[in-house]
Amino acid sequence: MAKQSKYKPAAKAAAKPVAKSAAAKKTASPRTGKTAAPALKTDAEQRHRMIAVAAYYIAERRGFGGGDTLQDWLLAEIEIDHRLPV
Known about the structure:
By secondary structure, the protein is mainly alpha-helical. Helices cover 38% and strands 0% of the residues.
């Protein structure tokens, strides 16, 4: 004869929806109805690389001569900062 267990089987817990953070939520544009991707954060190293690449292209546009590399960097910094989310 099988011995009866004194423990009851665990009831299956209902899956609860996971709340999304405000940054992860997609919001629909009232004008187009399309959803926008959540803003991604950029760390300092990524920002630095992006500025370096932008400064290179600024120098390339002027032919790599007769310019100021610091000025190229500062212009690139402004350009990248305008493109990154706040």
